[in-house]
Design brief:
The protein is α+β, with helices and mostly antiparallel strands and 346 residues long. Helix content is 36%, strand content 23%. Strands 1, 2, 5, 6, 7, 8, 9, 10, 11, 12, 13, 14, 15 and 16 form a 14-stranded mixed β-sheet that branches. A two-stranded antiparallel sheet has the order 3-4. The protein is globular. The relative contact order is 0.19. It binds fe (ii) ion.
C-alpha cells in the first residue's frame, strides 16, 4: 500500500501495489466535473526540500497535476522493478548519481532526447545516454571547526590521509552512497592503487564514522572532531538556524581537479504512461523558475548556469568543481565498495 500525495486537491489517492502488479493510473484522471486532467506520477527519493510548492508552481504553469510518493532510493528501484510495465510511476527522482546510474543500468529508465534539457544542464551532469538528468548539485567537501583548524591547514581529500589528521576526522560510513561516490571519484582521478593508498591513509587516521552528515557537523562544532566531510547543504541548513556555529566550509582540491560534485536528478521511467508530461516536468525543473524553487528548498546549487544559488550558499563564493561526468560514480561504485572493504573503511 502506498500513499500518493496530490498537490492539486490535497487528494490522497491510495493505490494498492503488490509485487505481482498494481493498479495503473488512467492516462488522464477525470476530476469531479468529468473533465480531463493531465497528471504525472513521481517516485521521489528526495524527500527534503519542500517538494509540494515546486510541484504546485509547475501545475499552475502547465496545468499538469503531480502525484508523488516518497521512498528510499533502493526501495523505489525495487518497486519499479517489481511493478514492471504496470508501474504507475512516470518519473524517478533520485539523490546521488550512483543511484541514477544503477536505475539506468537496471533498465528502469528510458532515453529522452530534449533540446531544452541539453541546453539547461551541463553535459557532465547528465547521463551520456540521456536516461537521467542532473537537476541540482550537492557538493561533498571538507568542513572544519573554526576554533581548532585554520583553513590554511586544509587542501585536498587526499591530504586527509596525512598523519597530521590522526584522531581528528569525522567520516560517513562506506555503506552510504555519498561515500561510495566520493571514493569512486578518487579512483577516477588517480587509478585504483593510488586511491586505495589515500583511503587507507584516512582509515589509519582513526576517523570517527558517523552515519549522518548533520551529526558529523554537530560533532565538529562540539570539538569531537576537527574536520569532517559532508554535503554542503547540511551545513547551510545548520548555519541558517545558527549563523554562529563554529564550523566553516572548505572547498577541497581547488589547486587541482576541483571539489567533488554530486547531483539530484530525474529520469523518465521505462514504462511511463504519461511520457510527455514526465518530460515536461523534468524540463520545467531545469528551467530558471523550476531551478530556483527546486534548488533553494534544500540550499542546493542549480545545475542551470543562468540561475543564482540561495544567498546562504552564494555567500560561500565561487569555486572550482571536478568536471568529471557524474555517471562515473555509478560505473566505479562496485570497485569503490570493494576498495573500502580491503582497507577496513567501516
Ligand atoms: Fe542528504
Amino acid at each position: 500500500m502506498k500513499v500518493w500525495r496530490s498537490i492539486s486537491m490535497g487528494l490522497l489517492l491510495l493505490l494498492v501495489a503488490t509485487a505481482a502488479g498494481c493498479t495503473a493510473p488512467e492516462k488522464e484522471a477525470a476530476d469531479s466535473e468529468g473533465t480531463q486532467e493531465k497528471v504525472v506520477y513521481v517516485y521521489s527519493a528526495r524527500h527534503y526540500g519542500q517538494m509540494e510548492p515546486v510541484f504546485q508552481e509547475f501545475m499552475k504553469e502547465t496545468g499538469i497535476e503531480v502525484r508523488f510518493t516518497y521512498g528510499k532510493d533502493a526501495e523505489l528501484r525495487e518497486r519499479l522493478k517489481a511493478e514492471g510495465e504496470f508501474t504507475p510511476a512516470d518519473v524517478y527522482i533520485s539523490v546521488d548519481a550512483g543511484n541514477l546510474w544503477l536505475a539506468a543500468q537496471e533498465g528502469l529508465l528510458q532515453p529522452v532526447k530534449s533540446d531544452v534539457l541539453e541546453s539547461n544542464i551541463p553535459q557532465n551532469l547528465r547521463d551520456p545516454e540521456n536516461r537521467w538528468f542532473g537537476l541540482t548539485m550537492r557538493i561533498r567537501t571538507i568542513v572544519y571547526n573554526t576554533e581548532r583548524v585554520s583553513p590554511q591547514e586544509l587542501s585536498t581529500y587526499e591530504d586527509l590521509a596525512d598523519p597530521k589528521w590522526k584522531n581528528r576526522l569525522c567520516l560517513r560510513p562506506s555503506t552510504k552512497v555519498y561515500t561510495q561516490s566520493l571514493v569512486a571519484s578518487l579512483i577516477a582521478a588517480h587509478g585504483e592503487e593510488k586511491a586505495e593508498e589515500i583511503v587507507r591513509g584516512w582509515v589509519e587516521n582513526n576517523p570517527k564514522f558517523i552515519d549522518s552528515d548533520t551529526r558529523i557537523i554537530e560533532t565538529v562544532a562540539a570539538g569531537g572532531c576537527d574536520v569532517g566531510v559532508v554535503m554542503h547543504y547540511y551545513l547551510a541548513r545548520l548555519k541558517d538556524r545558527n549563523p554562529d556555529l563554529p564550523v566553516d566550509i572548505f572547498w577541497a582540491n581547488q589547486e587541482d581537479r576541483g571539489v567533488h560534485v554530486n547531483i539530484v536528478g530525474a529520469g523518465v521511467t521505462r514504462y511511463a504512461k504519461n511520457r510527455e508530461e514526465a518530460i515536461r516536468l523534468i524540463e520545467w525543473l531545469s528551467s530558471e523558475k523550476g531551478q530556483k524553487l527546486f534548488a533553494d528548498g534544500n540550499f542546493e546549487y542549480p545545475v542551470n548556469p543562468r540561475v543564482e544559488p540561495h544567498p546562504i550558499v552564494k555567500e560561500w563564493g565561487e569555486f572550482k568543481m571536478d568536471p568529471i561526468n557524474v555517471a562515473e560514480y555509478g560505473r566505479l561504485q562496485k570497485r569503490a565498495i570493494e576498495l573500502m572493504e580491503r582497507v577496513g573503511y567501516r
